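Reviewers asked in the last cycle whether our approach scales beyond single polypeptides. To address this, we selected a multi-component target totalling 877 residues and predicted its structure end to end. The input consisted of the following lines:
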Amino acid sequence: MRIGIDVGGTNTDAVLLSAANRLLASVKTPTTPDVTDGVAWAVNDLLAAAAAAGAIERIDDLQAVMIGTTHFTNAIVERRGLTPTAVVRLALPATAALPPLVGWPKQLREAVGTQHYLVHGGYEYDGSELATMDPDELKRVAADVAGRGLRSVAVTSVFAPVNSEMELRAAEILRAEVPDLAVSCSHEFGRIGLLERENATVLNAALVDLAGRIVDGLTAALRNAGIRAPLLLSQNDGTVMDVEYARRFPVATFASGPTNSMRGAAFLAGLDECAVVDVGGTTADIGIVTGGFPREAGAVTELAGVRTNFRMPDLLSLGIGGGTRVRGNDFGPDSVGYELTERSLVFGGTELTLTDLAVRAGMIDLGDPDLVAHLESVRVAGVLAAVAERIAEAVDRMRTSSAPLPVVVVGGGSMLVPEALTGLEDIRRPEHYAVANAVGAAIAEVGGEVDRVFQVDSGTRDRILAEVKQEAVARAENAGAKAGTVRVVDVEEVPLAYLPGGATRIRVKAVGRLDVTRMVHA
Amino acid sequence: MRELILSDVDDIARGAAILGAGGGGDPYTGRLLAEAAIEQHGPVSVVDIVEVTPDAVVVPVSFMGAPTVSTEKLPSGQEAIVALRTLENVAGLKATHLVPIEIGGMNSVIPVAAAAETGLPLVDGDAMGRAFPEAHMVLPTLIGVSCTPMVIVDDKGNSMVLDTVTNQWAERIARAVCAEAGCSVFTVDTVLRGDQLADGLVPGTLGLAQRLGETVRVSMDPVQSVVDTLGGRVLITGKVADVDRRTSGGFVRGEARIEGTGEDRGSVLRLSFQNEHLLAERDGELLTSTPDLICVLDNETGEPVTTEGMRYGNRVAVLGVPCDRRWRTPEGLRLTGPRAFGYDHDYVSITGGTK
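The resulting structure, written as structure tokens, was:
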């Protein structure tokens, strides 16, 4: 059995899942300023609840603990606990026109450090050398880095996704010159687009100290609770990484929150293909799950004002939630938010909200129905129908074909979605939706991805695709997936304009079940 | 004369990406280059065509290569200046003004960076009035202006001078040189005299791009605002239901199927694209074609969707916008009509009437 934990802004949720993915126990506890305290608390509560229900006999029956946390994202947004970072770019004579950290918000740039070095090196699109790397140039960089007392460095070479060799050699030289230097290399972040990949690498490098502290804290929290099972952290693509990987790649946890929520909701409804509508107090977030994974948004996403090329779930947010204010026949987008239980009519307040209308319409039993009995039922029905129509339209805009698509509705405001939506007959409301995020963390698998430019000719396409798929599968297995369970879940081929010889960007993602026998134990 | 300042670049880049009709590449890198250059060297002077003296030497500066490569292998920052100096030495002339060769994507803002770096004024206009994929698809070709001498400079500092017998040959040889140099080069070519600008440029397109970018940024109904600014009309509002791409000869040839939503439900628009959107057929009827502009916009934000960025599930509005009148002449259509791109169709104008 496995524990899944979601550390949210308000609550830390924990669930216990059986080996067959049955939900055995769940708890909700407040998130604490020191995240690890809240996790320890949640784990202790969960184990107590599981023991009381007779769901767990021996604590060593636990095979893994999977945690989804927004801690690293928040650290960047709030500029807390960041490690001053040196940025090394292997690129001269190219790229000098735009130095590293260009376009970053000033405060974040200052928190991360403005020390950057452009040196000779890098590749052309076909993997041939743009310029030869000069080890002496790197040794001079290393001496300067050491002299400034910097302990973390981000290394990016031009076209590292096509050829990673120069980054690896540069990392080796830097580490040899500066003992204990933490080196983040851009090819580990995989995608073409120098500035965005470099930005991701720098964010990662700035998080390595914090990652060490958090991983140590979480490991200690589990050990104190008597748990020896390995700790894994959720990544933004719906897969997990082990703690050694997490120490080196904390940036991969970004956006794991919405991903876990959507995967958890789909899983609880027993679906691999569905739309997920998560209605909270302020917004309704709509996404599409295909093959058990959220459909991803386009190539570039912004985090705290920094452009990166992480893949994030494609979400459409509407200003519709339980706390959304109603005026006349109009609603939103403003909301009373978390003050619902003080300001809405059914709780004795003075603001008319969508929750009040739902109570009046008998869609939910909440607060004091007498306080909304005066609302004219025809008007209430009209506004609620308009709400449902907006949601139906949004789901329709997100779906990619007219084929029937089940809609999974979760969240505290889910009563606002009626039993049928226009064009969408199959509405599911899974049990335990309040802990969908933690369930999403607990069911995560292990993934591997390849994203590179290949020269594809008409005769070689099938062979190249087969090789790329094999490489993605091997990467998943190396990351801890059980051999034989790995499957390819996504293939994308984009021929590149103005490049000779059928240059095509191919991205393949493979995932497989976690091989717990190969995990590091706490 | 007016000044183009740092905060104008964003609007120009956004507007130019719309005018690129799906091509021209993501202007983000070009925008950063222009902003960095203005930050370092100060604002750029922009002049209208009528302000340019007849003996002025007006030089188009542009990027040539693969947009994807340009996002990875950024320029050294020396390319434009080296190219200009080489041109001046070889041709024995002195550049007085710079100008964009096209008003699409990256190449609308690259000259802004070059103007800031060189201190030369920038002419408000361009040689296409949109984006086209090949160097000879410019109005100056129609009035007998040669693309060469063309100077090509790469990020390593290599520079090459072409002198070709036709503009088509310039395109063909430059493309080969570009690939060998790493698919990301700067060129200066198609030098115009001041008295050739009226016939060789579409006037005012930098200002148009800026107004367009601004209206999309502030408008409550961006798609309608684009139609109001450019003329033309919405061909369909819908969802990208299928995208099929393949490459041949360095150019992407693709088709997208857009299924109508809302009032257009039940209709299907078939979009044929190469590097730009070229044909739009709705329910089997060809509504418009190149050289008119077919612009695909995000239906919510009005942001342009490039041919490379078009994905299954995009919610879009497809616009047909009239091109410059000189492209509608028989000579213009020979250069940029559907047959120039290998489609067996006559030109269909968005403003009605076929040719």
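The mean pLDDT of chain B is 92. We regard this as preliminary and will revisit it once experimental data from Aim 1 are available.
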